[in-house]
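SAMPLE LOG
Freezer: B-3
Tube label: C17
Construct: single chain, 398 aa
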Amino acid sequence: MEYATVEEMAKRWGVCAQAVQTCCEAGQIAGAERAGGAWRLPADTEPPQALRGAKSAQAGAGQTQAPAPHLMPLMNTPFLPGRCQESIEEMPDGPAKEIARAEYCYFSGQAEEAARRAELYLTCEDAEVRLSANLIYAYASLTNGQIRQARYALSEIQNTLGAGAGCLPPQLQAVAAFVGAAAAVLLHLPLPEGLPEPGAWLPLLPEGLRAFALYVQAHYGYLQEEYEKSLGLVEATLAMGADKYPIPAIYLHLAAVMDYMSLKKTGQAQKHLLAAWELARPDDLIEAFGEHHGLLGGMLEAVIKKDWPEDFKRMIAITYRFSDGWRKVHNPAVDHNVAGCLTTTEFAVAMLAARGWTNEEIGRHMKISPNTVKKHVSTVLQKLNIERRKDLKQHMLW
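STRUCTURE (predicted):
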């Protein structure tokens, strides 16, 4: 039998190679089989129904690329640092472009504007647009202190995942699973009931979203204290080209910082933090740094504060606003009340102390004296009404 590559069949069918790859991984192309690290397809096979629909739509529009997915379109867009907003303006007008604008507002620390834009699409008939809007609205509402609105959006995501999700087409099942996992894991909540195994939906996502989904999986591994496993997932995803998608790549690099700090490998952690900052700074994609502050083990204080003091102040402002809303959703839902009475510096010191770092190690890392560390730890113990360092963990992020 004669075989052809994914690229050859994509050209023959008039669709993009990514669409063909996705259908292969979903088992939708008869006779397709893996050969080494690539797929080969029977040269005489017909395109599956999903690609026939895409080809028809392209022919009607005079396009050569498959229609872009509407789920978190900016997250799924490769762009050069500094060209984020330009990439949005190049998108076709419509709901997906408006969602991309809401994404940019969120990832650049403009939570109020992100929520305002996303709110317009919370009940959109397009499931991908609707899920995107609810995810953005939920997290923006946390920062805005609008906890009732955040809970509403999270419940809408859960409803989509649970109510008849098994009857959805495979791609929409993947979309629902992706959003459901992201909403739960990043709030350190239990995974939703009915969530499929990652292997069932990860291959159906387009490349950029798959990179972010792998960040979510790495974050989940971190929460299970499987730091080496989490790191392996991050490093492999980045090695396969995730850096061309700046938003997922920023989050992947920050997950690596979390893991390396847990392993006391500060040199590697700093390398990944600076890689994330190099991707983020040209487009002011600052939100992720504020979100992750408590998990980065004082790395923002050690690396960003001195050379980028104004950006550091903005990160800390995001941290205070986001973490306050985060705790109001997280703490009542699980048997683990994360402390809310500490300053960001106290929290960073306490995170390291809870992981077994000595005062000397913390001081060397955060560029403060061991005596200052000792004072911070003493203040933390007093605020939390505990007596021993080993009791800190129950009040920290894990």
